[in-house]
Write a structure and sequence with these properties.
The protein has 134 residues and is mostly helical. It has helices spanning 3-30, 34-42, 47-70, 75-95, 106-132. It is elongated and about 60 Å long.
Length: 134
């Protein structure tokens, strides 16, 4: 892997880590954003339980984000990120597709995060193939 590819991959990991950590910390734990609570309410969860589940999911997102700093060569981590983007987008489409019509919507964030993982997968696989051919 070239120095440029390592820097690009590091940038991708730092970006994905920051996005996951931010999304877990700010709207779910620190602020408890109304839209986040509404997603749980749409699933039939009571307000009290929604807060608890939202904070738990926020912690899970923070942990997942931290993994991008730890597992820098993991294809599995990026595959999980792609799956998460697909499933989270699907959940929102199922619960309330009107979220996709808003200015700052799940499609924009999820597509960008998925694309970063696709680029990371290509870089990691290319590095592995280069190492095998040496």
């Amino acid at each position: 892997m070239t120095k440029l590819h390592r820097h690009i991959l590091l940038g991708i990991h730092a970006t994905l880590a920051t996005l996951w950590i931010y999304q877990g910390l700010v709207p779910k734990i620190l602020v408890q954003a109304p839209d986040e609570l509404r997603i749980w309410a749409l699933q039939g969860v009571t307000a009290d339980h929604a807060v608890i589940l939202m904070q738990m999911s926020g912690c899970a997102e923070i942990i997942f984000g931290l993994l991008f700093f730890i597992l820098r060569k993991s294809l599995c981590l990026h595959a999980l990120n792609l799956l998460a983007m697909l499933l989270l987008s699907g959940l929102i489409v199922w619960l309330d597709p009107s979220y996709f019509l808003q200015a700052f919507n799940p499609l924009v964030m999820n597509l960008a995060m998925a694309t970063l993982s696709m680029i990371a997968i290509a870089l990691i696989q290319d590095a592995k193939n280069t190492d095998l051919n040496r």
